[in-house]
Amino acid sequence: MFYLPTVAYQQFLQCFAKLRSRFSQPSAAEVAEAGDRQMAVTPAAGPPPDLALQQEILANRPFSLAEAIGREGGDFLKGECLVPRPLRAIARLNLFIDQHLCDQPGALHRVLQTWIKTDVHISQHLDTPLVALEKILASILDNPYVFNEFARQVNVQWGTLYDEIPRFQQPGQPPHPETAYPHQLIRQKLIDLQTRLQAESPT
User: Fold this and answer.
1) What's the mean pLDDT in 62-85?
2) pLDDT above 50 (res 193)
3) Which of 107, 166, 102, 97 is nearest to 130 (CA)?
4) H helices of the chain, where?
5) What's the DSSP call for residue 69?
6) 152 in Cβ contact with 168 (< 8 Å)
7) C-alpha–C-alpha distance, residues 121 and 63, integer Å
8) How far is CA 184 from CA 97, 100, 106, 137, 170, in A?
9) Is 32 left (phi over 0), alpha (psi -120 to 50) or beta?
10) CA dist 128 to 89, 131, 196, Å?
């Protein structure tokens, strides 16, 4: 029979114990004890804001983008406004048109809002967009060529919205009986908007 020396045998037992502890799984009691020690040294804290928002989304709770923006908007809007000035001016004019232009079919409304996006007066009056709108309306109403082109685009937009063939009014001619937007109608609506704009402008 082969016998290990006492010192070698003790070294063998130590090595075996290390290997066993490395590959063995901790018991449930050991895991619970480790968890208790972790809780004792780690103060209780709620989840961070971003994680809390994610948990709410994952909890099958009805969620809307507007609600998320409302919650995060305080941090998002701190400091200097991130929206470029031209976009802010255009948004202000779009809101004014939405509130004050009476246009049930909607074609005049859409064309005017598209028209102002590329007008040079916007860049000249970034801090006073209503002044820019007043100049834009005057440029449409006072120039026959510009007005005729504007009226043509309005009727084209109407045909697109309602899947109809647009009928156009020729300059100096009476409107076609099926013209959705005769020149006089467009002119009157722009004048009404112009009057409303002048009433809103500071004195």
Assistant:
1) 53
2) yes
3) 97
4) 6-23, 28-41, 49-58, 65-76, 85-100, 107-117, 120-124, 129-142, 144-162, 183-200
5) H
6) yes
7) 41
8) 19, 19, 17, 15, 12
9) alpha
10) 8, 6, 16
Q: Give me the residue label for tokens 């809780």.
A: 39
For the chain, report the end-to-end CA distance as a whole number of angstroms: 116
Which residues make Cβ contacts (< 8 Å) with residue 184, sequence separation at least 6? 175
Q: What sign does the dihedral 162-164-169-170 (CA atoms) show?
A: positive
Domain locations in the chain as residue ranges? 85-200
- DSSP letter assigned to residue 181: S
Banded pLDDT at 83 (limits 50, 70, 90)? confident
Amino acid at the residue 9: Y
Q: What are phi and psi of 106, to 5 degrees?
A: 100, -10
**Most confident of the ranges 18-22, 48-52, 72-76, 99-103:** 99-103
HSE at residue 152, side-chain half, CA atoms within 13 A, is 8
Distance of CA 97 to the CA centre of its chain: 20
- 96: which 2 tokens? 């004014």
5-42 burial code (b ≥16 CB/10 A, e <16): eeeeeeeeeeeeeeeeeeeeeeeeeeeeeeeeeeeeee
Instruction: Decide if pLDDT at 39 tops 60.
Output: no
**Alpha carbon 61 to its chain's center:** 22
